[in-house]
Amino acid sequence: MKKKFFAGALTAAMMAGMMAPAAVSADDMTTLSLWIPTLATYTDDAVAEVEGKINEYMGEKYGLQVDLEYVEIGNFEQAINLAMTTDEVDVTCYFTGDGQLSTYVNNGQLLDITDYFENASDDLKNTFTDAEITASSMNGRMYGLVRKYQYGGHAVAVMNKDIVEEMGIDAASITTMDQLEEVLYQVHEKYPDIYTMVPQSTSEMTWAWTQVCDKGIGLTNYAYADWGTTELKSLFECEGFADFCAYTNKWYNDGLIMSDALSNTMEGSSMVTAGSAFCCLHNGDVDPLDQIYPNTVESGLLAPARAISTDIGNLQYGISANSAHPDEAFTLLGLMYTDPEFATLLAYGIEGEHYVINDNGRAEYPEGMTAENEPYGGFAATATYADFLILPVKETALYEDAKATVDEWDANVEVTPTFGFFYDTSELADFVTAYSNLEDKYEDALMTGSVTLDDVLPQIKSELESIGFYDVLADTQAALDEYLAN
Question: Which pLDDT band, with edges at 50, 70 and 90, does 209 fall under?
Answer without folding.
Answer: confident
